[in-house]
Structure formats: C-alpha cells, structure tokens
What does this fold into?
Amino acid sequence: MKALVTGAAGFIGSNLVDRLLAEGHAVIGVDNLSTGRLEFLEKARQSQSFSFVRADLLNHGGLADLMGGADLVFHMAANADVRFGTQHPHRDLEQNTIVTFKVLEAMRQAGVSRIVFASTGSIYGEAAVFPTPEDAPFPVQTSFYGASKLACEGLIEAFCEGLGMTGYIFRFVSILGERYTHGHVVDFCDQLREHPERLRVLGDGRQRKSYLHVQDCIDAILLALDQANGRVNIFNLGTDQYCEVNDSIAWICERLGVHPRLDYTGGDRGWVGDNPFIFLDCSRIRGLGWRPKLGIREAVVRTVDDLARARLPAK
Amino acid sequence: MKALVTGAAGFIGSNLVDRLLAEGHAVIGVDNLSTGRLEFLEKARQSQSFSFVRADLLNHGGLADLMGGADLVFHMAANADVRFGTQHPHRDLEQNTIVTFKVLEAMRQAGVSRIVFASTGSIYGEAAVFPTPEDAPFPVQTSFYGASKLACEGLIEAFCEGLGMTGYIFRFVSILGERYTHGHVVDFCDQLREHPERLRVLGDGRQRKSYLHVQDCIDAILLALDQANGRVNIFNLGTDQYCEVNDSIAWICERLGVHPRLDYTGGDRGWVGDNPFIFLDCSRIRGLGWRPKLGIREAVVRTVDDLARARLPAK
It folds into this structure.
C-alpha cells in the first residue's frame, strides 16, 4: 500500500508514519512544519519507503501531483488548537475546513478514492447523552475547532456520496503518548518543571475528560480500515473510561514526585468552549474487535515519562 | 429596527424585504445579482426605508461598513442549487460556507450580534427518523449543499458560543410562492408550457417531499425572532404534511388543464444526493404559536398561478 499522510510531522501523523513504514507500506509525508517537527520524522527519513514533502496544503498548487499513485490519504493535518479558537476564527476555517476541501479535490483529480480523517469528539459540543454514540442527537457546536471538523466531516461525506469516495472518519478523544506537544499533560509538566511548588489549573479541576494513547488510536484506525466497508465509516475512538482533571493531576504529581499547591482559575470550564464532560461510546469500534491496551491512567503516566525523556539534553 | 438582508434580490430574500418594509423597518439589501433579480426589489426600491447595495459577499472588502447601525442580519444569500453540487463542489464551499464566515466576521467587526440564517432540511441527509426533529440522530451528509449549510450552522454556533452572538437558524423544507425561481414546480411548469403532452420526471415520482409557502416561512421567522431567546435558536420550518412528487404533478396538471404522458427517469432518487423522503417535525416552532396558513397543495397551486402571471408579457 502507498499512503499519503498529511500532517506527517505532527504528533499523531508521525506516529502513524512510523507504524505504516514498520508494516511495510510506502509513505509520502506532507507537512508545512508550522507545528509539526522534522525531528519526529528522523526515523522515518532513514527508510527507503518514505519521502517527505514540505508543503502548505492551503496554498499548494500541485497537490494532486503529490498524490499520484497513492492508494489512500490519511488526512491528519489540522489546526489542533481548540482553546484559542475565538482569537483567530479564520484559522480553523482555513487550516481545517478549506484545507480538507483542497485535499479532497486533489484526491479526485488524482483518482485517489479512500480518505482517513482525524476528527474529534469536540463535534458533539456539550453532548446530551453519555457515553456519547456516533449517532448522538444532532449537536450544537461550542468551538471553532469543533465547527471546522464538523464541516470537514460533511465535505468528506458529500464527496463519498456524490463522487464515489470512501471515507473513514475517526472522532478522537484527547490523544496522549510519545511526541505529544500540547494539552493538559504537557502544560502541567511544563509548569511543574518550572515551579514544582504550585500548579495553575484552568477551571475547577472537576472537568471530566477522556484520553487515549496514540498507539491504541493507530491500532483502531488500521483495524477499521481493514474491516469496515461502508461508503462513510464513522467511529468514536476512546477508552471506556473518563477521569477528572484532578485525577490526572494526582497521577502526574505522583509520577514526578511533587506536591504542588493547586491554584484553580474557577468555573466548571477551563475556557470558553471547553467541554466539561467528554466521554464517548466506543462500542462501534469495539465491535470490530479493537481493545485499547492502555487505560487513561497508564496513558497519562507514560506521557509524563515521554515528556521527561524528550527534555533530556541531546547526547 | 434596521436590518441588513443578504440575498435581498432572491426569492425568499426579496419577499422578506417587502415584509420588513411593510412592518415599518429600515432595510439594507445586499445582493450580487448572480441569481437574484433586481425586478424582485421593484416595490422595495420605492421605499425611503430601503437601500440596495450590489456587492459580492465573497470578495467584498467593506462588508463591516455596510452593516454599520444594523440591529441584525438576515443571511439569506446562498448557492441554493442542491442538484448540481457534484459538478462544482467549490461553489457550495465558497458561496455558502466561506461567505457565511465573512458575514459573521463582518458582523463582529461592526458590532452586530444577531443573525438569522436560512438553513435547510437537507442537512438531515437521509434521516433515520420521521418526522425529523431538530435533535435527530447526528446525520451523514448526502449533498454538497447540505454539507455547506451544516458548516454554516456550525460557524454560527461557534460565533454565538465563543463571541457572544445570538443565532436564529431555520431549517427549511422546499419553499414555494411568488418569485420562486427553481425547483420542481417551475421545472414542471416550464416543461408543460413547452410541450403540454409530456412531462419528464426525475426518479420514479414516488419521492416524498415537503413544501411551505414563502409567506408562512416569513411569518415563522419573524415570530421566532420575537419569541425565542436562546443563544442558538434552531427551528425546522415546514407544514405537518408531505406529498409524493406524483401528487404535486397531479395538482399542477389539473391547474393547468393538461394531461401529459409521464416519462420517469426511474430510480427512487431524482439525482445523486436527492433525498427520497423529507418530512420535518415542526413542533418546536408550533410551540411558539405559529401555524402555516397554506397546506402543501395550496402552496403548489398558488405557485403555479404565480408562475403563469409572471410569464404574461409586460403591459
């Protein structure tokens, strides 16, 4: 299989690239390196089966040419910053919605018909049902990020329905693991490294969130790609657990051996548009035989270790 | 009240403009006249309270200036062509999704916080529940038009949630009435005028559709604007009825006094992405006291009469 991976130098994208290469596939990685890091592809670039193209999907004229001969596209590139969406609403529109449209149009021109898309549980907004299934009541969007991913899903579905493509849409909870670069674990670890005696916590710490380890996430994607055969295949991806932000803080502090004072900013949301409760019903993907190997606590603790290792000075 | 109406020279937009003026409001009408017709604003332009600006919302630099002093925006401009979406997918993205984003950004700059949005029952795709309520199971999109309107709804919701706006989103069934310019009634009337002895019908004629008269539609919008006070207010708009395309054909033929041979193209859909059954649950808007004055049959027959009148040579 020859796959094109967008966002190849990002957290999830680079882990996916490594896995695809390990399984013997050929991979073209595309990234504009705006948030992706070339060092995440250090191992991949030693492979004969990998090629990297630095390109901005929003403005790249020859996207269809890049896709020549690819069997499918893993579209992982995105503005993944949920929190600051209100500061620059155009970013989610451009980097997510419009870029996804351009990827789909390039696929059509190049005759590539299968797309895997990294969507998000954020599109359920403040869900009315927990755990939230894929066919939950029609949600109201609460963030520009969620709105843009919803728009991407709609575009993919329209291309599948109207133009014969096949789509695999995965609605992720927060993903953790090696090369994780933003989110609460990295924020807390950064803070505690700088001042182990105190920790600023957005909201009241009672927000209930779900996490999944990146390797479990990739297992699920590859399994679904092999097993699901609808025109549009939509899967929630998460563990069957959730935790409070306070639980995660306790695990992180225990692992780091620190006992900080907790300074809560207050309120039941970390920021405008923060979902106070994310918990997805993942029985659809479990029905294909997938089980996550790591629970939330293990995923958090491993990520703390990965972050500590990544910060050691280079040899 | 001072309202800005986009798509002011269109079918629904121009009827809305006339109503707003009749109720004593000031109206700024904006239209690029790509499908809108200046003649639809003939009456409005005689009013001191009306001003018209020919502008393309996609490329207009000074949109925020146009909005100065407006109390709310009725965003009715759109590419309303569902059927040919697969021939030019970028059109729905640009004319609907991106234009809506630009309208919202201009509103933010101009300090206008209320938006009324013309959405569509098409966003329910092939619904799983009939009649379909606003909180139906999370739909899969089946047309570029539906996908683009879904994207617009998400954007409006994100602006409401994150940036303090208030949104009124109306998911229309097909709207009929004076100045109606595209859809099955105009298509059938055009055909029967040209060759009264035969009628080409897309699909098998068994598709079940819902229609609403434009004046009932406007009644509902203005009532909701007055009565609903959520941050995001979403309403289905339709009658509590549906009909088969064959029913509509019978009413049209009876009204025109013709007996054509019916040539069905076959299949249960008129075209790729055509919904074989549209029937919305409108109990939410009925809960505010709204009742349509015309049923589907009366709406169809009046539209046939309107079309016949519009085709009479000018005096």
About this structure: The interface with chain A takes residues 85-86, 89-90, 93, 97-98, 101, 104-105, 125, 128, 134-144, 146-148, 150-151, 153-155, 157-159, 161-163, 232, 234, 272-273 of chain B (CB under 8 Å). Chain B has nine helices and 13 strands.
